[in-house]
## 1
Amino acid sequence: MQSDSTRSVSSASGLENALATANRMAALEPSATLAMAARASSMASSGVCVIDLSVGEPDFPTPTHICQAAIEAMHAGKTKYTPAAGIPELRSAVARDYSRRSGLSISAANVVISNGAKHALHNVFTSLLNPGDEVIVPAPYWVSYAEVIKLSGAQPIFVETRLEDDFKLQPEVFRRAITKASRMFLICTPSNPTGTVYSKEELGVLADIAIDANLSIVSDEIYDQLVFDGGKAVSFPTLRKNLEQRTVVVAGVSKTYSMTGWRIGWSISPEPLAKAIGNLQSQETSSPSSISQHAARAALDGPQECVAAMLHEFQNRRTFVADRLAAMPGVRVPHIGGAFYAFFDIRPMLGRTYAGNRISTSSQWCEALLEQHHVATVAGSAFGCEGHVRMSFASSKEKLSEGLSRIESFLAQSE
Ligand code: PMP
Ligand code: GLU
């Protein structure tokens, strides 16, 4: 054992710098969504009645047949390392499910199973991007894109979208953002944080621009089964012939089957890239959890009524939340076509005084809402869109109603 005196001598000789973080960590922001959820949960555990509308996590339990498959996998001894890219049965199940829904014909060799879609995205960026590459990302964007792209040494280039266009990227804005360093275009539809769902025609125009500029495309389709009003999400590679040769689709079970904690997501890509991602994963995590992979397989291969039931409930909540928000003076909401977020404009309500304090930013607004009325939301600035706020409606109708009433009272007291 080292004595205290030895430690202090070492410290004087520079020990305090021994664990100084690497340069790449300097600009790394923690996930704003997870940070807000952690704050809400710590307030709740100290006895405060918090309405947590921060994190995008379905409030339903994971369906019983999926949990049962995990229990059976454990009893059958499926508790060992799996192949790095995932168990063949799950890779095949993803390939079957995607081929059936998209109409494209893919095989298990195109699929790599990872520890959630977030990890799949990290793998894709690490495998494709070099320092100096630019990735064009429509803003508002999901919080983790910016940080994970930066970790690869590449640079996210944010391109603005507007509430007036339901936050859809306009072709001329996309074209203007392309430079010699542009390497990749990242798109998420249905979108987190805005709920935007692009039509086939709108996506086709964006696909043509990406093809002309010889960009790779990462299409985050994790909300592809959460489209309202009978609509259907369009998978990006289906838009043009051979588009799958330059596109990586990322998705997972977290949102569709209420399986956020199981940590299973995947990438679908041409085989050479899938091999590279599998190799990367073999060095970084060995494989995703064996038990979770068996559960995810049951999710994909089993009955799908649970998906329809959750979609139905999310759609009801969407209408409820959008109507209540739209009726609030000074608040504007875009059309929410899918996912489970309302991303609303509060710009007219900034620069006002709330309980004696002047509030000028979305972050101050969310902070005051949490402190004074105990409602957790996420500031638009975390998604690259100041003046807006994201609330998740992956929460019960009762909680949503109470949260919205508190937001109304908060706004009403401003002057
Ligand atoms: N992409 C988007 C747009 C998301 O909202 C999320 C939510 N966490 C993810 C990817 C990652 O999901 P997970 O890692 O839980 O599969
Ligand atoms: N995607 C969810 C959200 O945006 C989960 C949290 C996270 O992974 O950042 O709230």
## 2
Amino acid sequence: MKVGILSFQGSFLDHSKSILSIGATPVLIKNEADIYDLDALILPGGESTAMKKIDSYLKVFSVLDDFIKSGKPTLSTCAGTILLAKEVIGGDTTIPNIDIQVTRNAYGRQTESFEGSVSFYDNNDIYCFIRAPKITNILTDKVEVIAKHNEEIVGVKQDNIVALTFHPELNNDKYYLNWLDNFIKEGENVRTL
Ligand code: GLN
């Protein structure tokens, strides 16, 4: 299985370690030519404004948009989730594919980054929130809530896309890796049209 990871900047190397540890092959996406024959896609955390700027030169987002719409499993974390949101408060929409509104930097500045207890499907663990966005509105009933921190929504699924605001790739706990393995293997069946 080949999993493409957007690798302009941010936590792409951590995601590639997760992918290696489940026996799949990470492909670091820096150019359009890297988006070939992939089984799944990861959009990592980092800085969404920087990613957008880099893409104005490298121009891979429109090809990624086609890939996502083809129904292949797509995971986003943090800045990656901002890229996919249909509405962005405090920023721009980029490759809108998921019916959520996010508010950038909603917990405050970098010093307000924290570790918090998260329910992710039926598991609980402590995960990092690094100058994270908040999911401040769910725009359609196509969106399923899959992760919460206290009463706040921190992870959603819509068809073939799972979008999180925290960083499971920094834990690589067994539950997450097992979920990731199943998610990327579900292939096109993951989309319920
Ligand atoms: N604050 C970043 C942004 O707005 C997201 C932070 C992250 O990905 N950890 O893009």
## 3
Amino acid sequence: MIDTLRLTAEEALGLLERREVSARELWDAYRAAIDERDGELHCFLSLVDEPAGEGVPIALKDVIGTKGIETTAGSKILKGYVPLYDSTVARRCKEAGLVTLGKTNTDEFAMGSSTENSAFGPSRNPWDPTRVPGGSGGGSAAAVAGGLAPWALGSDTGGSIKQPAALCGIVGLRPTYGTVSRYGIVAFASSLDQVGPTTKTVRDCALLYRTIAGRDPSDSTTADVPEVELPEREDLRGVRIGVPKQMVEAEGIESGVKDAFERTIQLARELGAEVGECELPLSVEYGLPCYYLVAPAEASSNLARYDGVRYGLRAPEDAYHAMVMRTRDEGFGDEPKRRIMLGTYALSAGYFEAYYGQAQKVRTVIRREHAEAFERFDVLASPTSPTVAFELGAKTQDPLAMYANDLLTIPSCMAGLPGLNVPCGLSEGLPVGLQLIGPQFAENALFAAGHALERALGFDRVPERLR
Ligand code: GLN
């Protein structure tokens, strides 16, 4: 019997290599888990009927373009859009022998922190189905945590890999900007979007990152990436960990989250790390407002392409302008509309310098603050999310409360830096995530620190109600 709740992708690869299970048996085990639990969790927007290969299965967030498989980005406006080509990450997964199980749920165009903005209904948290799995990559995170996929890919603009991983008690990496190709990904905010792994363990995360990272001629923002090392070490001797004062003292961090974080920092000391305090005052104060100018500005431009001509939905109107207007009115949900309006405003003549221009300057300040912190520390540590998973509906009427979820994940995204979520304990029976931030291209340092902590923490990642 394959226990999909416990089996790691690395173990699955081993079983296949040693021919202890067949690829078909693996596929069937995950399909059985999907049949059993996806009705409740709603992780998948579409499923693939037959495995297109002989390797380990994988789930892909529905912003990842897949040849021949509908790709909707959680939006009605892309309903029925079947890409004619694979995104580079989908192609690399195929070339590595991975077989796509299906496409996972996401907030519409990855805009959100709970998957409740999906046009196709929310996903639910495997730890407690009355609660959200986080977002926007809640479908991928819930699929991995709920044993519906051994691992999955997500995308992260301001926290959409890290925060759902935190809320679902699994590992998630937002890679350094420019390490993973964006070719064939549904664009949200192009200066921030990065694809990355959502996995059960840090080693799985390193394996999947190794598969997808690297320069891609089809995405000129990609760079050569240092060779990925699978983490082995179980201590943290010689590792300097900085704890940004403003991140642990920020308003709205639940006391249970703080406690789990502090216990983890104590453990890091016991493993030999040198822990010190550092400062990110402007990043924490201005990170969110800066992001909510830059990201909507880029989104308003990226989403201009959905005009009813090239992709998905087309409203039946004879005149061109009437068709475009109705398609966009009926095709976009409230959140993309809100962002398009915010973004167009920030970019409009007369306001551009005051909003978008100013935000770009603040972004440079955020980058500098992080660079200064990394003069003294190898990695920075904070909670990933200020809260544990919240109830469905709790924040849907209050966009600002929803945005506040990203307080701790956004600053490093604005600085283009990699961030890893490692589950670090429970609060009220729900997972708490530790966020480790590194300098550019320091994924190996994050994997090493994350792996040592993961080993020492011994967090049981199988949701209590499914054990
Ligand atoms: N929650 C943030 C937003 O709504 C980040 C989403 C993301 O990273 N895609 O924009």
